[in-house]
Amino acid sequence: MANTYFVTGGTGFIGRFLIPHLLDRGGRVWLLVREQSLGKVEQLRALWGVDESQLIAVTGDLSRQRLGIGRAQTAALAGKVTHFIHLAAIYDLAADADAQLEANVGGTRNALACARALKVRCFHHMSSIAAAGLYSGSFTEEMFEEATGLDNPYYRTKHDAEALVRREKTLPWRIYRPGIVVGHSQTGEMDKIDGPYYFFPAVRAVSNSLPGWLRALVVEGGSLNIVPVDYVVQAMDYLLHLRGQDRKTFFLTDPDGISVGDLLRVLLHAAHGPSVGVLRGGLIEGLLAQLPVGRLAGAPPVKKALAGVLRQYGIPAETLQFVGYPTRFDSTRTRKLLEPAGIDCPRFEDYAEVLWRYWEQHLSPDVSRRGGGQLARALARAIGGDLPKRLRQEVAGKVVVVTGASSGIGLDCAHKLADAGAIVVLAARTPEKLEDALNEIRERGGQAFAYPCDLAEMADCDRFVQAVLAEHGHVDILINNAGRSIRRSVQYSFDRFHDFERTMQLNYFGALRLILGFGPSMLERRSGHIVNISSIGVLASPPRFSAYVASKAALDAFSWCAASEFADRNVRFTTVNMPLVRTPMIAPTRLYDAFPTLTPDQASDLVMKAIIDKPKRVATGLGLAGAVAQAVAPRVSELVLNQAYRLFPDSAASRGLSEEEASREREALPKNATDLARKLFAQVFSGVHW
Question: Where are the domains of the chain?
Fold first, then answer.
């Protein structure tokens, strides 16, 4: 005799995937629906190719006694239902507490009463891992009363609903606890924004702001348990028909789970955003324990700012508890039962891109605004893709001044701007190299003009400004890229005051002279953009760069002050806190050969993005993290930087050593441990100038 089924919540997300499995077994399915939802049943029949003799609508309501099914219909169905499958519930952390209590607890009580009246063979209850609350440690399938941290209404109502089933004496029962259910692992199909989907808009915002080749760092955080809907329904369909499993509980979970840090890493990869390194282990946890995170998070300005960010991206505050989620779920017994059927949970990493594509096409907030669901193209939003088109729209026909334009970042910027139709004004100290750069651009069909200029000489700066304004009338965009870097400890600089003078002269006074020279015409025309190429060092304050960082910090501070004065006249300032770039400026420092660096092409893409979007600051996650660390935990930050200072010595030249003396010193260093520590710092803090 074929099995028969009575299903609550069958028109919901899990039900729409489970019921086809039941129908494929040849049985009949009675589907509880509200009267106003009868049309959905007709649609499902058409979708699944069945008639009303196979999929039978039963009108009722979860909130009514015995689900509101009349005595006559109850008597007609009594003894005919093999499996009562209770799926209906509110699966939403942010839902109203009273509504959750009525649906999850009251609904389960009414479903049990209905199942008893129908004299079903087994009651199948869809619970959740939320029934474990915030238990710290490994939670097994046999555990229930051990649950802790049930303050959230969703956790409490899922736990209390499961308790009702466990106390049931008349009916055999089986309980299923799925993890956080997401879309289909093959198609991505999902019906609403829930769980990790709340964070997708924020992930996309990060991906749009930073290029995919940049490297950010995140802390590992708690472990989440995410499962695709197709795994849940395959496992449930198999387990509810398996003999000898009554009064058992089944974890439909990922055996490994995924940490919050790895979740961000995987989602950013799917969104073609920056690559992410996940900081793991006790050392990081120990460092974080020293940070006043709790006190900081409770401060009114921080709470207000956090609330604003959550509101901007539509993230319920309740989801933040997952950042430190403490529970692991031991599904050993269930996995052994599923093994003969070949049913196992895929890794989130293996289907994340499928989920992302479906979200972009069907669930993203942009879909409705685009009027018809035009496909969003992730690669086009990453840096590159439509960058040349957007750049052309922004700079075509505009006069753009690029300093330090004969090599490195400046030369790459000049090429891209000229290719986009800008009138590029090249400034550099060496006439021969400048002429070569000019010829390269003109050979490619670009429009460019070259002006030899030593920006460390104020008179030269003034002559340059006058010549440019005389020939072109105005400047639309100024890119202050020229710079000088010195890597030397303060203790080796006591008699080298000129190092500080030279870096300040070029990096600050030279750039400032150009801003003061081109600024009046920008204000008069009520249009202009000044892009200053600064350094990640200003945010992270690495040792040995006191002269360089101070000069860049001075320009940053000036620009932030001036920006507030110019804001209402459409003259914008952008600071690019550039990570380490493979340019001639760092070539003399052989230590950097082992460091991850950007190419000039990648670095210039950051500048082009700054020109298009005009943000106040362009910075990597590592740079911003360094700034935050120095603000909230200056002592911890200082200790980390000091450790790096001791690991990475000053060059022999900066200390005035001969090559013979430097060689003897290198041989005396303990190789293995020191080299390993240096590599660790170089990888973890990539882009910081040790």
Answer: 1-178, 383-627
As a CATH number, domain 1-178 is 3.40.50.720
Q: What pLDDT score does 305 carry?
A: 57
Residue 626's pLDDT band, with cuts at 50, 70 and 90, is: low
Residue 208, pLDDT score: 73
| 376-385: Cβ within 8 A, 24+ apart | 378/207, 378/270, 378/271, 378/272, 379/272, 381/204, 381/207, 381/208, 381/272, 382/207, 382/208, 382/211, 382/212, 382/271, 382/272, 382/273, 383/210, 383/211, 383/212, 383/605, 383/606, 383/609, 384/211, 384/605
The confidence score (pLDDT) of residue 659 equals 63
Compute the distance between CA of residue 62 and CA of residue 103 in angstroms, rounded to an integer: 7
The whole model's pTM is what?
0.59
Count helices and strands in the chain by DSSP H and E runs: 29, 22
Strands 215-219 and 275-279: parallel
Q: What is the DSSP string of 424-450?
A: EEEEES-HHHHHHHHHHHHHTT-EEEE
DSSP 8-state code for residue 346: P
Helix 671-684 and helix 634-647, axial crossing angle in degrees, nearest 10: 130
Q: Two tokens at 191?
A: 């019906």
DSSP conformation letters of 65-123: GGGG--HHHHHHHTTT-SEEEE------TTS-HHHHIIIIIIHHHHHHHHHHHHT-SEE
Q: 């049931």: which residue's tokens?
A: 168
**Cα 166 to the center of its chain, rounded Å:** 40
Chain centroid to Cα 325, Å, comes to 18
pLDDT at 319: 64
Spatial distance between the Cα atoms of 529 and 575, rounded to a whole number of angstroms: 11
Apex 62 CA angle, 60 and 63, nearest 5: 110
In the block, residue with structure tokens 């308790």: 163
What superfamily in CATH does domain 383-627 come from? NAD(P)-binding Rossmann-like Domain (3.40.50.720)
pLDDT score for 37: 86
**26 — phi, psi (to 5°)?**
90, 5
* Closest-CA residue to 363 (of 571, 198, 216, 490): 198
pLDDT at residue 119, rounded to an integer? 96
* pLDDT 10s digits, 140-151: 999 999 999 998
What confidence category does residue 69 fall into, taking pLDDT thresholds of 50, 70 and 90?
very high
Q: What is the CA radius of gyration of the chain?
A: 32
Phi, psi of 40 (to 5 degrees): -65, -35
Q: Which helix (H) or strand (E) holds 5?
A: strand 4-8
Q: How far apart are CA 419 and CA 422, in angstroms?
A: 7
Residue closest to 58 by CA, chosen among 122, 5, 133: 5
pLDDT of residue 621: 58
Residues 95-140 pLDDT 10s: 788 999 999 999 999 999 999 999 999 999 999 999 999 999 999 9
In this predicted structure, what is the pLDDT of residue 470?
Answer: 96
Stated as kind and residue range, the H or E segment containing 217 is strand 215-219
Asked if the domains at 1-178 and 383-627 fall in one CATH topology, the answer is yes
Catalytic machinery residues: 548
